[in-house]
Structures are given as structure tokens and as C-alpha cells.
């Protein structure tokens, strides 16, 4: 993996509105970031955000992948990282070929690629649904949301009429149910995409090989422990197969995998890092550790049970400040555990957000957090994350969190009553009401009471987390 301590160059293909790239640029001032997208509205938005956040190590360029593949601009240079999130299985085959040609030009030897994609076999049961939703859309001029409703009604009728497809594909029923609960924005983006092509692992693997890319592992951390964490008889089937491509596909069949986040490297397959190399990584405590939750960490292959005493000891060791894994491993009771077991527990805690990767670069996140929270509250821009100076992982933040951020930035020392009053005022000023269990709290006393509950939780949990991770300066 290219080292992050010195300078590095990072390319995002299909950067959208640019928040993710701006977050990284703020956290890694030593990196140089370029985001590419062919949608001029996205590029204008992304440039505006970068400028408002005072970021000087980032640029956004409006360009089509197919044009870049033909004519790679000399001033783009070569990259250590290239990222394609939500792109590869949503573009037609010629654009996938263009992306591969482009990566072949863009990536340094040893450079790392991240690619996420809808995966087979997990989407198999959605194919009839997606096909018919698209047919309805092509034949009509109503909104995407209405198409989803029409399609759901059509498939309800099919299922009730005993359609053979529903009998041959029982999970179709669950897909149909999810049409009624998932957000319409997501459903429109997912199902009504004209280039919706779930892919097998081997397809992506073989296509990327043309850019001399070798599979490294999964960015979904627990999946790197497969097949070892599958049931014994499942692991035996996977391990009995020849070659890692076949084994990955058997894992996908075992999990009925529907989404992969894969890492590839330009050059020969990387060896797994040893503790001697991993030991220098620092981690810091993340969200509060809660016994009932931590014992069951949710993964794509079910819930994992973690040794809670060990998890607590690791968490306590990094609660006050980031520590290297070497340091954590040198403390009791971690010294009693084999190193591979310790790394596995740390990995699962990172995955669940109880730990966060830490770093000590001179990040400058205040301006970005200020502009993001201001735009959410005043302009209803739908950002959902804030950025911590001490971790590369953005932190999910609700609209209420954004309001708290602004209040505390303006007046840091607040008790829960003051904070609750400021929250109600701040939301009211932007025409919002607090909502509790779906009920709009328009009566002032009810709103204040709920605001106080939220404030206590914020002061007790969220603010300490933000201070630890550098979203806010420490008190
Ligand atoms: C689903 S969005 C993903 C955005 C972002 N990566 C994210 O995860 O939030 C796909 C993006 O790819 C861009 N895109 C699609 N085809 C493209 C092409 N041929 N050239 C450049 N950008 C393209 C779209 O404009 C869109 O912003």
C-alpha cells in the first residue's frame, strides 16, 4: 500500500458532489486530490464546497471517462490511489472498458484501486423486478417514484396470481417488500438506472487484469477473514477450490453476496501485512462501547461474537489518545492473546465503529465542518457527515447533530438546558420542528423536553466522540 505519511496523489472517478473527496483532502493536507465527473452540476457544487472549505490540495474536473481513456491530460499525472464508488456496475460495458484503459494510464506501479459494485448472485432475484421497472419507465413519463409504486403493485398482483417467477425465486417477495420501505431516492437510483449490470467477482477481476491490477482484498474489513469465519462445512467447500478467484466466487455464492468493495493493486498480488508492519498503525476509541451490541458485530455473513473483556481493554487503552497497535499489544490482557487474534478483534471493532483509524497529520477540518453544517441547517443541503481531524473516516451526523455542531462552535460551554434552548431556536429559525418517533413536536414544552433529552445524549456521547476524533477541539 502506498504510504500516507509522505505526499500522495489520489484520483476519484465519478466523484459526484465531491463531499467524500473534500473530507479526505481536509484530513490529509499532504495528499493531492483530483475528482472527475461528467456532470457539470456536480463539478460546480464540488468546486464550491472545496473553495468554501479553503482546500487548496484538491481540484475537480468535468470529464467523461471515455474521453480521458483516449486522451489522458498530461497535467493529471500519475496516481497512488484511484477510487470508483458506485460506478462500475452502473455504466455500460464500453465505459467499463474506458475505466480500465484509464486506470492503465493513471496508476503508478504499486498503486491501489478501490472498486465497489453490485454483485452476483445476490441481485439475481431483483433482475425480473429491475427489468419490468425499467420497461414501465421507458413506456411512461411519470416520476421515478410513481414508477416504483406502479411496479410494486404490478409485482404484488403477479405474486398473488401465483406467477412462476415468484415460485422459482422466493427472495423476490422480500425484494418487493423492500420497495415499500426503502427511500424512494435510493430505489430510483438503484432500480431505474438504465445501465444496471450486477457483476460476478471474476468478471471484474478479469477486466481489471487488463490494467495489470491484482486483487488484494476487501475494503469491507470482516470479509478478509473469509472463508475462515464461515461454518465449517461451508469453509471446507470454499477451501477445496483451486485458486483465489474461484474461492472468492464460492464465498459470494455462500453469502448470496450483493455488493462488494474490492481493493486491487497495480503489479503482483500483495502479501498480507505482518504485525511488524501493522503495529505502526494507530487507532483511537470510536462510538461508545456497549456490551449487548459489541458481543454481536454485524457482518455480511451474520453476527460475530467478540471477546468482550478483550474489546473493553483495547477500547480503554485508546480512549484518551490514539495509540499504535504495537502499544496496545504490549498491555495486559492483550499480551496473553496471539497477535493474529488481537488483530482480528481490532479489525472487527474498526468495522463496527468502536475504534477508528487514527493519524497525526496536521488536518484542517474546521472550515469544511463549518460550511457543511451551515449548508445543512440554512440551505437544506443533504450532507450527512462531519469530518474528524484525527481519523480518515467521516462521521455520520443527523440534521440535529449539525445544529449542535454550530451551537457548540459558537459557544463551547453549554449545559443541557442551554443547549436544548439553543437547539429549539436554531431549528425554528430555519423553519424546522423537532420530530420524535415520527411525530412533529409543535407544542413548545414538548419540543423543549425532547431537545433536552437529545442535548443530554449529545453532551454525554456525541461531543466526547467528536472531541476524541477531532471534529471539535478538546475542551
Ligand atoms: C452513483 S454516482 C456515485 C458518486 C460518488 N462516487 C458517490 O459514491 O457518492 C455516479 C457518478 O458517476 C458519474 N458518471 C457516470 N458515468 C460517467 C462517465 N462516463 N464519465 C464521468 N462521470 C460519470 C455520474 O455523473 C455520477 O456523479
Automatic annotation (TrEMBL):
Keywords: Methyltransferase, Transferase. Residues 184-266 form the Methyltransferase regulatory domain. CDD domains: AdoMet_MTases. Pfam families: Methyltransf_31, MethyTransf_Reg. GO terms for biological process: methylation. Residues 7-119 form the Methyltransferase domain. One of its GO terms (molecular function) is methyltransferase activity. InterPro entries: Methyltranfer_dom, MeTrfase_reg_dom_prd, SAM-binding_MTase, SAM-dependent_MTases_sf. PANTHER family: METHYLTRANSFERASE TYPE 11, S-ADENOSYLMETHIONINE-DEPENDENT METHYLTRANSFERASE RV2258C. This is Putative methyltransferase. It comes from Oceanococcus atlanticus.
Amino acid at each position: 500500500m502506498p504510504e500516507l505519511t509522505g505526499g500522495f496523489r489520489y484520483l476519484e472517478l465519478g466523484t459526484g458532489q465531491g463531499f467524500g473527496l473534500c473530507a479526505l483532502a481536509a484530513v490529509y493536507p499532504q495528499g493531492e486530490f483530483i475528482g472527475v465527473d461528467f456532470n457539470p452540476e456536480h463539478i460546480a457544487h464540488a468546486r464550491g464546497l472545496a473553495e468554501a472549505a479553503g482546500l487548496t490540495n484538491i481540484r475537480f474536473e468535468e470529464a467523461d471517462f471515455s474521453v480521458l481513456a483516449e486522451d489522458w491530460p498530461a497535467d493529471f499525472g500519475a496516481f497512488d490511489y484511484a477510487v470508483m464508488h458506485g460506478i462500475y456496475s452502473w455504466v455500460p460495458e464500453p465505459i467499463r472498458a474506458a475505466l480500465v484503459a484509464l486506470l492503465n494510464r493513471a496508476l503508478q506501479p504499486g498503486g491501489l484501486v478501490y472498486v465497489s459494485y453490485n454483485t452476483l448472485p445476490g441481485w439475481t432475484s431483483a433482475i425480473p423486478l429491475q427489468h419490468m421497472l425499467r420497461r414501465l419507465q421507458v413506456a411512461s413519463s411519470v416520476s421515478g417514484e410513481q414508477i416504483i409504486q406502479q411496479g410494486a403493485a404490478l409485482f404484488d398482483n403477479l405474486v398473488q396470481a401465483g406467477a412462476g417467477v415468484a415460485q422459482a425465486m422466493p427472495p423476490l417477495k422480500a425484494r418487493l417488500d423492500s420497495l415499500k420501505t426503502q427511500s424512494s431516492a435510493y430505489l430510483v437510483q438503484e432500480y431505474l438506472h438504465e445501465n444496471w449490470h450486477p457483476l460476478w467477482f471474476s468478471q471484474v477481476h478479469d477486466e481489471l487484469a487488463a490494467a495489470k491490477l491484482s486483487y488484494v482484498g476487501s475494503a469491507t474489513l470482516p470479509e478478509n477473514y473469509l472463508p475462515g469465519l464461515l461454518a465449517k462445512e461451508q469453509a471446507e467447500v470454499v477451501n477445496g477450490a483451486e485458486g483465489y478467484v474461484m474461492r472468492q466466487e464460492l464465498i459470494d455464492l455462500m453469502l448470496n453476496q450483493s455488493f462488494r468493495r474490492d481493493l486491487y493493486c497495480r503489479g503482483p498480488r500483495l502479501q498480507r501485512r505482518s504485525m511488524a508492519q501493522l503495529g505502526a498503525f494507530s487507532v483511537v476509541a470510536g462510538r461508545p462501547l456497549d456490551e449487548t451490541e459489541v458481543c454481536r458485530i454485524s457482518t455480511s455473513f451474520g453476527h460475530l461474537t467478540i471477546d468482550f473483556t478483550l474489546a473493553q481493554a483495547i477500547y480503554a487503552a485508546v480512549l484518551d489518545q490514539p495509540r499504535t497497535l504495537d502499544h496496545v499489544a504490549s498491555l495486559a490482557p492483550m499480551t496473553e492473546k496471539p497477535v493474529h487474534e488481537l488483530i482480528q478483534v481490532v479489525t472487527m471493532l474498526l468495522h463496527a465503529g468502536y475504534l477508528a483509524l487514527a493519524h497525526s497529520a496536521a488536518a484542517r477540518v474546521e472550515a469544511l465542518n463549518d460550511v457543511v453544517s451551515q449548508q445543512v441547517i440554512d440551505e437544506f443541503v443533504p450532507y450527512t457527515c462531519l469530518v474528524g481531524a484525527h481519523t480518515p473516516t467521516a462521521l455520520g451526523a443527523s440534521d440535529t447533530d449539525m445544529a449542535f455542531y454550530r451551537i457548540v462552535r459558537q459557544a463551547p460551554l453549554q449545559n443541557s438546558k442551554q443547549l436544548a434552548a439553543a437547539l429549539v431556536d436554531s431549528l425554528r429559525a430555519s423553519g424546522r420542528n423537532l420530530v420524535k418517533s415520527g411525530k412533529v413536536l409543535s407544542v413548545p414544552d414538548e419540543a423543549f423536553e425532547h431537545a433536552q433529552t437529545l442535548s443530554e445524549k449529545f453532551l454525554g456521547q456525541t461531543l466526547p466522540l467528536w472531541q476524541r476524533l477531532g471534529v471539535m477541539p478538546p475542551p
